[in-house]
Every structure is written in C-alpha cells, then in structure tokens.
Design a protein that fits this description.
242 residues, alpha/beta, Zincin-like, 2 domains, four-stranded mixed beta sheet, 6 helices, 36% helix, 29% strand
Length: 242
C-alpha cells in the first residue's frame, strides 16, 4: 500500500515507565529490558493498538522491575581482595573463596560450593589475582576443544587454532583467513551454555563473514535459542508473548 510504513517507532508511558514501542512485521510481542541503559523496548505487530501494548506491559511490570533493580545491585561490585569469604563466579555459580596458605606451589581447586586457593605464605593480592586468572584460563582451555570437536562436523568447518585472552568489548573473535578463534577469558565465569553460544557464533563466521541474514539463519539452525543466550551474556532481559 502506497505510503504505508512497514516499521514505526514511538514511546508509551505505562505506570510511569517509558517504553519504546517498535511496530514491525512480527507475529508476537517481544519485550526486552536493557538494565544498564535503563531502557525498556517492545517489538509488536504493526496493527496492534497502544492500549493492548500497555495492557501487556502492565502484566509484565513485576518482571521488568525485577530486572531493572537486579542491575542496580550488580552495577557497583566491590573490588576483589582475594581473601577468604569472598564470592567468585565460576561457570555461572558464585563460589566462596577459601584461601589456604601452604609452603607449596600454588593451585586452585573447586570443592562443592568452595573455591580453594592454595598459596604460599605472604602471597600478595596481585599474585593471588594472577593465580586465579591463570586457573580461569586453564578451565576454558579444557572445555573449548570439546565444543569445537562437537560443532565442526555439524557445521562442516575446521578450526585450526583457538586462544583465550582478556577482551574489553567482545566475547569472541574469528580470524577467517587462518581459521582461528579467540574467546574472552571472562567466559569462564559464565554459564557453560554461554561459552558454547560464543564458540558457535565464532565458528559460524567461517561460513559467513558478516552479521548478515544468512549468518543469523545459520545461528538459528545450529542454536535456536541463541537470541536469549546473547541477551543473557550482554546483560539484557527478554520476554515474548508466544
């Protein structure tokens, strides 16, 4: 139809909450919360009324407020001192750090809900952090090869090499020419499913270099739930009306 917009954007006030409303060619209502940006966004079918959108959001207000308030709790974490009693994330679970001084080479060991750090007497905070960082790296290096081996035959691609490093803005990168992928060290602190998502994401780049429609078709084929995993990894929350 001439002059008919396939996409429009507006704002709606629901119980004092400003919601970005994106009308597009979708079948369901898709609500997202961006805690770090204090934003709430909803994608809706083009012909749905503002009152229907407001009613849907009203019903989700407890869920929205929960995720917005949870971010405030996590936004200002206390700097780690690497002393007993602290909580340190390991594969999506917060473990209590237990520092044990022994005149032996340092090591780290998970014992139930405890993360035991064995160090020599007098080991300073910087060295303790370095020992844990090395341990996180080894944890990743133990899991990544199995994931690559799992997905290579399914995707019909070959990863020649992988590495782990600290990255500020990315969870992973892929060198397409050399068939090498890099994974962020911080992934050892996340749920294993999130590591697998990033591995798959980088491996899909061996099939499609750009983040194109073809790329995302591959992602949906190999990992149908990739969108929710991506949101979780990036600190976003999503809920859909199915």
């Amino acid at each position: 139809m001439a002059g008919y917009k396939l996409y429009s954007k507006s704002k709606l006030n629901v119980s004092g909450l400003t919601v970005e409303v994106h009308r597009k060619n979708v079948k369901n209502l898709n609500l997202r919360v961006y805690p770090a940006e204090r934003r709430v966004r909803i994608s809706v079918p083009r012909r749905i009324s503002d009152s229907d959108v407001a009613n849907f959001v009203e019903g989700k207000l407890p869920w929205i407020q929960k995720h917005l308030s949870n971010y405030r709790i996590k936004a200002k974490p206390r700097p780690k001192k690497f002393i007993s009693g602290e909580l340190h994330p390991v594969w999506g679970k917060d473990l209590e750090l237990v520092v044990i001084e022994k005149n032996k080479p340092p090591r780290v060991w998970v014992d139930g809900d405890k993360l035991k750090l064995f160090i020599r007497p007098g080991t300073n905070q910087q060295k303790r952090a370095s020992i844990l960082k090395k341990w996180y790296r080894e944890e990743l290096k133990q899991r990544i090869p199995n994931l690559i081996e799992k997905w290579e035959p399914r995707m019909n691609v070959k990863v020649n090499e992988f590495g782990v490093k600290k990255m500020k803005t990315r969870w992973g990168t892929c060198n397409i020419r050399d068939h090498r992928i890099w994974l962020n060290l911080e992934l050892a602190k996340k749920r294993p499913e999130l590591l697998e998502y990033v591995v798959i994401h980088e491996m899909v780049h061996l099939l499609e270099r750009l983040h194109s429609k073809r790329f995302y078709r591959f992602m949906s084929e190999f990992l149908p739930e990739w969108k929710s995993l991506k949101d979780e990894l990036n600190g976003k929350s999503r809920i859909s009306d199915c």
